[in-house]
Design brief:
Length: 150
């Protein structure tokens, strides 16, 4: 399971020109689910994301988490995070989970984030053609892969 975290002052997801969901201060999470992912990946990744100290403390140091600041989460599914690009010029998505596997894991990921944050996350729509807008604060962008837990 891969996640791209973007610290944002605002972010939104639009579908067909209509804003579906939006957040203010918090994290935009682009989430890619692959065939080998399971609930262990969800548990590890949601804990890591909600505890990651990438927001500024009163001294301006990155020392507090999204949960600490009472921030919001906007979670968007993005299978293209699992693009294989070594051969040719057309990416392969063979390791990305098919919807029948990915949708339940995506929903479980959202539920776990809601529990850890003690508030409801905002989301995109799985499989929809979405336009994502954001104001990246910093900019701060972090990539986390649950298969790289050293």
């Amino acid at each position: 399971m891969k996640a791209v975290l973007q610290r944002v002052s605002s972010a939104s997801v639009s579908i067909n020109g209509i804003i579906h969901s939006k957040i203010d201060n918090g994290l935009l999470i682009l989430l890619g689910i692959e065939t080998l992912d399971d609930e262990n990946d969800i548990n590890w990744l949601t804990q890591k994301i909600t505890s990651m100290r990438i927001f500024s403390d009163p001294d301006g140091k990155m020392n507090v988490s999204v949960k600490d600041i009472g921030g919001e989460l906007l979670i968007v599914s993005q299978f293209t995070l699992h693009a294989l690009t070594a051969k040719g010029n057309r990416p392969s998505f063979i390791t990305a989970a098919r919807p029948e596997q990915a949708i339940p894991l995506y929903q479980k990921f959202i539920q776990e984030c809601d529990l850890l944050m003690e508030k409801e996350s905002r989301t995109g729509v799985f499989g929809a053609d979405m336009q994502v807008s954001l104001i990246n604060d910093g900019p701060v962008t972090i990539i986390i892969d649950s298969k790289n837990r050293i």
